[in-house]
Amino acid sequence: MVDWVKANSELLSLTANLGMMVVWIVYLNMFLVSFSRQNRSVIHISRAASEHMNGRCLVTNMGAQNLYLVGVVIDIKTKDGNSRAIVTDREEWGEGDFDNMLQRTLQGPLGAGEARDIGSFEELAKRAQARLGSEFDTRRSKALTITAVAAPNQHQKLVGASKCFNVQDVDAEDAEPRFVPSTLMTKQISGLFRTRRLSRMVQDR
């Protein structure tokens, strides 16, 4: 046995080195995956308090790092087509209605685990109408898609998330429309081409 070990010492040493290399590669990969998950930006969009027009829409930073909320975009689907509006600023209110002008915008930092109330569904619809310069009956809408655009801490890129809320019970007599999310989870928007699209969305002012 000793003679065999001596005769194959180089092969055994090479095998041991390869084994150690595999262990370190696996360990490094696990570390990188864990680091990437901890630094990944995750934005959650949810409905709160009510499922009707006065229900609140919340944008929550579920990631470990701070975000800066750059803009909020709403897409309204009706039987006549789709309309898009930037609803970051509360344009349904006049500039003199606030003591602090910063209260008229949704822009600002969003810490880890922090949620921001961006308005009710009715307020978002009115904000979109003010932005588009037109009026429409929200009850006749088929769906509202809300997209939140943010800049991660210490990153020169944008991230975003979107969720579609289907408008139901609009045909029932005297029934309030219900805003029902099409999915439980929020769709995360990342990647070079998608983030370029996000940039165009919030710059289209």
Explain what the structure shows.
The chain is α+β, with helices and mostly antiparallel strands. It has helices spanning 2-7, 9-38, 121-132, 192-203; strands at 43-48, 56-61, 67-78, 81-86, 108-110, 115-120, 141-152, 159-168, 178-181, 187-189. The strands form 2 sheets. Strands 3, 4, 5, 7, 8, 9 and 10 form a 7-stranded antiparallel beta sheet that branches. The protein has a 3-stranded antiparallel beta sheet with strand order 1-2-6. The N and C termini lie far apart (80 Å).
Largest sheet: 7 strands, antiparallel
Tally of strands = 10
Give the number of helices: 4
Taken in chain order, the helices and strands follow as HHEEEEEEHEEEEH
Gap between N and C termini, in Å? 80 Å
Category from helices, strands and their pairing: alpha+beta
Radius of gyration: 25 Å
Strand content: 25-35%
Mean pLDDT reading: 80
Percentage of residues assigned to helices? 25-40%
| Outline | elongated
- In the predicted model, the low-confidence regions spanning at least 5 consecutive residues are none
Please describe the structure with a list of short key phrases separated by commas or semicolons:
205 residues; 3-stranded antiparallel β-sheet; elongated; alpha+beta
Q: Would you spell out the secondary-structure blueprint of this structure?
A:
Layout lengths: L1 H6 L1 H30 L4 E6 L7 E6 L5 E12 L2 E6 L21 E3 L4 E6 H12 L8 E12 L6 E10 L9 E4 L5 E3 L2 H12 L2
Antiparallel strand pairs: 1-2, 2-6, 3-4, 3-5, 3-7, 7-8, 8-9, 8-10
